[in-house]
Amino acid sequence: MIEVACAIIEKDGLVLAAQRSERMSLPLKWEFPGGKIEPGETAEECLCRELFEEMGISVAVKKCLPASTYHYPKASVTLYPFVCSIASGEIVLDEHAAINWLPPEELQNLDWAEADVAVIESYLATCESCSR
């Protein structure tokens, strides 16, 4: 079981999607940025560390969404999603191939890593600024 914290970063009514690089597992799939939770680390601490390491940003956490588990053929992944905003820094792509800022209702148009699909659904069900 791999435990991962991920960020649904909101800005001006848009949501950040990050495309995995060709050298990562699930190459070129889209995901919410974040990373593996280290021993002794909370999901929120992990999120803040990973986003600073991978993208050079600090985030302000607004709320957490329910954890979601997906079973890939070789491993199971539990995502701990947090709705955030950028508190400081400018995004630098060290790990990802690309980013895209999308209106929430267009998130499902991308080719997402399967584990992130349930997170999108949960986010859209609770999103205050989403069109319904």
Automatic annotation (TrEMBL):
Keywords: DNA damage, DNA repair, DNA replication, Hydrolase, Magnesium, Metal-binding, Mutator protein. Its EC number is 3.6.1.55. Gene3D superfamilies: Nucleoside Triphosphate Pyrophosphohydrolase. Its cofactor is Mg(2+). One of its GO terms (molecular function) is 8-oxo-7,8-dihydrodeoxyguanosine triphosphate pyrophosphatase activity. It is an enzyme of class 3 (hydrolase). The keyword Cell membrane does not apply. It catalyses: 8-oxo-dGTP + H2O = 8-oxo-dGMP + diphosphate + H(+); 8-oxo-GTP + H2O = 8-oxo-GMP + diphosphate + H(+). It comes from the Bacteria. GO terms for biological process: DNA repair; DNA replication. Pfam families: NUDIX (PF00293). PROSITE patterns: NUDIX, NUDIX_BOX. Residues 1-124 form the Nudix hydrolase domain. The keyword Flavoprotein does not apply. Transmembrane segments: none annotated. Belongs to the Nudix hydrolase family. This is 8-oxo-dGTP diphosphatase. It comes from Pelovirga terrestris.
